[in-house]
Amino acid sequence: MFLNVSERNRFLFGAGCALLVGIYVWHCLAVNYMSDDGYIAFQYVRNLVRGEGLVYNPGERVEGYNNFLWIIMLAGFSWLLPSVDLMVISKALGILFGALTIIVVCRFSWMVRKESGPFCLLAGAFLAFHSGLAAWSTGGLETTLFAFLLFAAAYAYVYHMRTGRNFLLVPLLFGLAALTRPDAVLLFGVTSAHALFMEWKRTRKLFSLRLVAWGLVFLAIYVPYYVWRYSYYGYPMPNTFYTKVGSTYLQYIRGARYLLDYMKWFGGFIFVLPLLALLRKNREPWRDYVALLVGVYFIYLVYVGGDGLAFYRFVVYIAPLMYVLAQEGFADLYERIKQSRFATRRWALAAPALVLVLVSLGFTMRLTVFPLLFPKDQQWYEPHSELNFPGDAGHRYVWFDNYFVDRLAVAARWLEANAPEGAVVASTPAGSIAYHMNHKVIDMLGLNDIHIARTVTPRMGKGRAGHEKGDGKYVLSRSPDFILMGNVAVLSYPVDETTMARKIRLKSENELWDDPEFHKSYELECVRLADSGPFQYFTFYKKEGLVLPAQP
Predict the structure, then answer these.
(1) 4 pLDDT above the threshold of 70
(2) Distance, CA of 75 to chain centre
(3) 411-423, pLDDT tens digit by residue?
(4) Nearest-5° angle of CA 300, CA 248, CA 444?
(5) Is residue 280 located within the same domain as residue 144?
(6) Pair 274, 227: CB distance under 8 Å
(7) Shared domain check, 414 and 368
(8) Which residues lie closer than 8 Å to 194 by C-beta, 6 or more apart?
(9) Which among 120, 136, 324, 503 is placed 20 to 30 Å from 549, CA to CA?
């Protein structure tokens, strides 16, 4: 039995979508990236499951996260599957939501392109090959969940614009997105303003019961959560906001540079194509709406100063919407060429279009796929650890962050086994070090410390986002038993005082080093951990007079 054109198109679309999901899953598993910030979320999950509350250190209410729904979801699965490591759970969920994102993007494209044409799968292809999406699918954070909910909410709104149905599904999805990250409140506001404008165009009235119901659905989800978190933590914004966001022009410059760097690494010419989709005279209204969301989010990224983590995490949130616009730009460019004098020659259409798509996909995947395929060509030197990444004979780590997470875990496990019960540890990185032991941690960057988060940092925005605050005197006043200087110095060689002075990192460590009280009250200790590999020696400072077990 032969398929008609419609059935054949549906079959090819379904097969293409399945292929893209398969490519994406392979991409994620091949990259297998992990971040230390993911372990901060795991620390909150672990304490919640243990009955300690949604806290970083038991007894201290600090909101060092801004991904509530993700943490609750991880906690639920951790409670149901106590024998499964949280990292495994987070990676499985991250890949699942990434795959769902690709599926709904393809389905959206199928809808807006009227179930035909070669471009229905292009946006999905960009996402399947996208280095940032693949890396952050396994990075331990809420990235793919938030990207999925944002796109699903926008999809529901565009579907309503085209059919008049599912009006209240939009605020429901935006409400869930706002529980995942507070950024969604901004985009819900933009969508609400657009809906109000469309309602006014349709009825010439600004008030309608439909819009009241729309707002009530969102508020019914978000307000109870916000009231709870304000009563629980006592501040209007998460502690991470106070740590990362200032209000200086330097921050805005850093945010603009963050976006420009993304476009440079991911093929800046791709982002010119959406302009073609928006310059088309008879374009559908949904294109303007999606462009409005992307534009407002870009302004927001500039305002907050971008992000300090790898693989352009903040852009990944909005990437599905960006690449749908890019897809439409490719399609419009193709149509323009098709109507030109070259249209009589099929190769003149197909060859340039194929080359442009392949080059664009190459840019999209180069941050992850190129280091995997060509490690020697992509190798770079990390001066603090004095190692090359991707690894050479000394180790096999492709990504520095995976190495760093394991480095912190090695230190934490040694402290868990050797530090006295009730010990307090001060550390600049705050994820893996806290999760892999049961001692209280002073987060010297301030993500999980109310005092440091609210210190005033001159020229905020000049340094790396999220890594600018600190207070050495405050750390000393807490009298920690251990201070992990040198960004937790677990290295292949022992570190003496002179070498440690060169490895001091960021504000708290620098202020501690310059304080005579620190050198008077703490002494350098170096322990041998292994005979080979990158983690042979652990060098740290312990309180003067603190006795440790004898080392073998």
Answers:
(1) no
(2) 19
(3) 999 999 999 999 9
(4) 90
(5) yes
(6) no
(7) no
(8) 157, 289, 292
(9) 503
